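# step 3/5: fold
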Amino acid sequence: MAKQKKIHIKKLSDINPAEALNRLNKGLVTLRRLTTKGAELGEDIAQIVAKLRQVAAPDNEPFVFTQSLQENEQLLQVVLRDCDDVKWRYFKAGKVDAFVVFLLGMVDTTLIEKNVLETLMGDSNNMNVTTSIQSKYNQLLTSASLARIAEPAEAFEALMTGSALVFIDGVAEAFAIGAVKHVKRDISVPQAEDVIRGPHDAFNETLMDNLTMLRRKTHDTNLKVSMLRLGDRSRTAVALVYIADLIKPGLLEEVNRRLAKINTDIILLSYKIEELITDHPWSPFPQVQSTERPDKVISSIYEGRMAIVVDNTPMALIVPCTYNALMQSPEDYTSPAVVAGLITLTRHFCGFIAIYLPAIYISIVSFHPGMLPTTLAISIAELRSRTPFPSFLEAVLMESLLEVFIEAIIRLPKKVAGAAGVVGALVIGTTVVQAGLVNPLLVVVVATTAIASFTMPNYGYAMALRFLRVPMLILASILGLYGVMLGYLAVTIHMCALRSFGESYLGSVLDISLISDWKDMIVRLPLRFLSKRPEQYGVQKKQRAGDENG
């Protein structure tokens, strides 16, 4: 028998290692390409399957729930794919399959275990679908916040806001269990509107906490809260708060109309809503009052106005907004009437000099030095002879340095802001004068202007005053006091033309028919004389107290 010849096969890597390595790399590249294509194909197939299951869904719904638990699960997983913080828990509700889905970190899992799993998984729960779920679901789920949801869009909204969704085989609905528990900031003191005497609580970023604080301030059943959501993607919760028998007729409808016209995908700040509902977006003056104080919101809605409270922001909006509302402070009502009246009058005067004092200085020094006493005029001329720049450039330089230091102090951490303030005071108050860039009198004028703007109770109004100083300086440098007068007339006419939800910005100040409102405007009279609510807001019941209709 012939001896078989042995065939020896050698590996390519033994003969030509470089060629083998090259072929291996090409194969790996091809494999990666096929893997990527496969993943993309799987994504496309998942989208096609999701679209095929939308046969009976309305245009605004991703799909419709069915009585099949498996189909509902697959539909949910298509929408919630790549969401690793979504947790699924499968269990038996008696004899029926069920599962609960929730967002990790947004839900109190202890409540889910006690109110859902222990209740539905109990040994004594041997009911079938039709008897236990359709007719007696409220006896099985012991959560205080329970809702049956048939629309998938509403179910996803509840899921993303911290509710747990329970699905049971044979039921074409979801049960939303309110068990919200997430990290939130505690209630703290106001940062921008703190007072010496008065409440020291402020809004936080949680809507329900803010509404609770408002409810604690008053127990009036006429206080109404209307909820809605804005933002096509963010679905931010917004609450409209008002007193039903006091609000101006038509104001609620007007606010709802303007909010319904907001077409944006995301709402993160209340200021975005403020800018989108204002009548004059190009005006520097705030046309919607913002506050972080619950007591200010309560006092405002009892004047016939409305508050807009937005989730995820600690600032509430109040409409309509007028000049008088912006100039009021809570401390005006925690001090004696004589003291409060003097402080209010001082505040109005500070608002004037915050805009016009540098412009008046420039116009007098540059164009009208004869208006000054001879001794003061000679002293100012001597100071100006030491500086190389004209008064206008000196004022612009000082205003620029002041704004730079203010912005730096605001942006810096609190521990560093104090040191930055000291450095700013040395640079502005000492170094600039010693270098001969500006004269000391201008430093006093600019510092007085800055301090006057800081007395404004509303930050938005103070920013408007800071903005208007620049055009006033330009007018004063060109036309002198005539330019200042023209600027004053332009600002006054502009404020008179402003409207905030139909109300005149300066109407209560200049309208003689609203003379009764002057008791709490330029000065504050004692409370016994403030028995009527302001007429400028069109309140339904004018009497605060004293008769059966107030």
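# step 4/5: annotate
Residues 351 and 453 are 7 Å apart (CA to CA).
# step 5/5: archive (pending)
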